[in-house]
Fold:
Amino acid sequence: MIKTIPEVAEILKRGGVCAFPTETVYGLGAHPFHPEAIQRIFAIKGRAGDQPLSLHISQLGELFKFGQDIPSMANRFINRFWPGPLALIVPSSPLVPSQARSNRQTASFRYPNHFQFRELGRLVGAPLIATSANRSGSLSAVCSLDAEAELGEWIDGTVDGGPCDYALDSTLVDLTTDPPTVLREGAIGLELLQEQTGFHLKLVGRKLVRLEVLFLPEGKSFPENQSGDIVVLKSVPKKESMFFSLLADLQKQNVSKVYIPAEFSLQNKVVQRLWFRGQKKRGDGNCK
Structure:
């Protein structure tokens, strides 16, 4: 259910679990001092307990409160990319619940550049323990309708912040390794990270690509001379969740464009959500 920012803030402070917008994808979050809510995130997501969640902060000071022994190199990343679509792994302070960091000594921090999230964080008065607002194995939510369609029956509310600017997950850098390692290359590319910080970074995870879904009018043929990053679907699963899982698998294979015959398109709301996912420029409207 769509709720206002003050309503969601109160729900989170009481131990609820809600979805919220960022500039990359929608997040699924809880208050850091409500262990039952954190456990709900793992259950709702279908996420293994050994895969840690992240902390989404709304002001820089929270990094130094919930992290400790922050490496000096972090300053270059912070100065050039925060707030923005970059997550940094640093040593964790005891304030971060062990279940959220999967009993590790480190934690991942995100400082989203999204005014509605930052207002939400200000009202909550603490970072949010969070992950992307989707079931494991499905596409990350890039608008409130995505989050509601996928998780609405299990969560306590959603802040509608419109479509996400990047529609691609954040880049994740581990600053506790030497050299720093990129565990996920997302909205910020490896070359730009190295250029702006002067550090040599090692990519040890996968590179994410923006998935663009294109619908062709009935009777129109598919483009010729297709490259390996383009896939043509001759049919689509009738169940929406299975369809989104299929697209998530294609995205993992670095597919950037998926062509679907118009006669196989799903309900109009799904078509619009998929269309937004492939756009580089967006207005203020939501995908519904």
The CA atoms of residues 15 and 95 lie 17 Å apart. The first helix runs from residue 5 to 13.
